[in-house]
Design brief:
5-stranded mixed beta sheet; 359 residues; 40% helix; 25% strand
Amino acid sequence: MLALDNLSHKSAIDALTEGATHGACTSLYVPVEPGETLAQVRQKLTIQLSEAATYLQSVKDPQEQLDYFRPLKQAVDQLTLPPHVKGVGLFRSPDHFFYAPLQLAPPSLAVVADSFHIKPVLQSLTATPHCYALAISLRHLKVFRVAGLAVEPLQIYANPFWDSEDESSTIGSRKQQKEQNDRFVRQVVKLMVKDVEMHRKSVAIFGPKVLRRRLQSELRNRHKMDCFLETTMTGSLDEMATVIQPRLEAIYQKATHQTAVTLANTVEKGLLANSLGDIAAAAIEGRIETLIVDPAVQLWGFYDRELGEFVTHDRQMSHKDDCVLDDIVEEVVKRNGEIIFVDAQEMGGVAPYLAKLRW
């Protein structure tokens, strides 16, 4: 079983879109509520698994169903949850088996179709922006990558001007200390941006006020980095992530909403599609540059990926049904289009889908 949280954004989506090779593809989602036990989460997944089985009763005999769902049942029984996870996705096709802990709570879903249902995974990945955290002291600079509530140590750079046996070499006069701080920051930033791809990235800085302000100035002025947070050092990596993530998510959500509103209001009318028929046809032609989707909307039915045509139902009716919007999202992603998830009501009640076209 491949854990999608160990993959990059693109690799995780590629795994799901390319994993749907042939036969029935089952996607199970459940949210994880605060304080919920592992047993309760397993029970919710078992319920979704039973629902998925009903969609295959007409096309698989009991033994075939048992063989098909056995790995999913085993995964549910052996499920463990990372800290702070807000949802779980399990995916099974005849050839592939994936697991995805989610940073955003998904709806409870059991979908059996000709491809995986990817919107909740994609939304969780795109709504969990990553940044770099820098912890600076007189002794060293530590670099971390933060994604959601996961913190990954990357590099440690020692201060070459620090003498642990002679603290006066670092303390000295105020002028000497400032000069040494400046030299340390300039040198370490030069090394850091060479080792880590950080140009124009979002950065949080932790440490003493004098050092973090000097580091912030160097990063903003010379490397165009967005230093969205600077504060004193926290006690642990978990605390660091807890401080960073709400600020980072707020920035991301504001930027995403503004992008969606700008597209809806300023794109040339000839390059804007708000009809589902036009969007469905443009998706398979590779003409969609950006697709705005309300993640709460499910339009059950069948999407013909060769003709760009679709039919919709008022509910999921069989193993041939998936959310038409989900299939369109998949086609846009395959053709290097951007997906933006926005609540339609926040955009003034516009349609739950809107596309900016390349031509």
